[in-house]
Design a protein that fits this description.
The protein is mainly α. About 60% of the residues lie in helices and about 10% in strands. Helix 4 crosses helix 5, helix 4 packs parallel to helix 7 and helix 5 crosses helix 7. It starts with a helix and ends with a helix.
Length: about 200
């Protein structure tokens, strides 16, 4: 009887040892998978605290297009408009090299309350500009102006169109009265922001 109890105790100990070993192996497997997945985000996650402390915007996320994105954008606009890709890339170069527009945005941001650490990059707005330059529209409407970067980009296209003999007018709609603070100076010559409900404005 005593021998049987000792054997039972030994078997219970072996079972506990096996369960603990399996638990540790499973915990190790999970940890390895977690580390593997986090390795894709580590660099991004490490920048969150730095970003959170800055006084940048929280909605536009101004960014610069990569060369590949820019190339795809030119191809897309060419397919949509049946215009030569070379003409489109010329317009993309035109706005990216527009120092008057960049200087205007930088100085207007200093005077605004939008955020002292904001650095404007045009992102998708390059496509807006090229489209307006290609199509020479008489009216351009933007719903939701926010800071007014897109407003200035579109107005810049209309100003260049005007210099070439194509008149056009920009209308932005914005429900917040504090929106559109960057849209002023020569850019406001070819447009205006309509404040209030967009449906009513349109």
């Amino acid at each position: 009887m005593r021998q049987q109890r000792r054997e039972d105790a030994r078997m219970e100990e072996e079972e506990r040892h096996l369960l603990e070993k399996n638990r540790q192996e499973e915990a190790g497997r999970i940890e390895r998978r977690r580390d593997f997945a986090l390795s894709y985000y580590g660099g991004t996650l490490s920048r969150i605290d730095s970003w959170a402390e800055k006084h940048t915007e929280n909605s536009n996320f101004y960014y610069r297009l990569t060369p590949m994105n820019r190339s795809y954008l030119a191809s897309l606009l060419s397919a949509l408009t049946a215009k030569p890709r070379e003409e489109i890339t010329g317009y993309l170069d035109e706005i990216e090299n527009d120092q008057d527009l960049r200087s205007h945005l930088e100085s207007a941001l200093v005077d605004s309350s939008y955020g002292k650490d904001i650095k404007v990059e045009y992102g998708r707005r390059l496509g807006w500009y090229a489209f307006a330059r290609l199509m020479k529209p008489k009216i351009v409407v933007e719903t939701g102006v926010d800071h007014g970067v897109g407003s200035c980009v579109l107005a810049s296209a209309l100003l260049r169109n005007r210099d070439e003999g194509f008149e056009g007018r920009y209308y932005g709609t914005e429900i917040r009265r504090e929106g559109g603070g960057l849209f002023r100076g020569k850019y406001a010559e070819v447009g205006e922001i309509l404040y209030g409900d967009s449906i009513e404005s349109l």
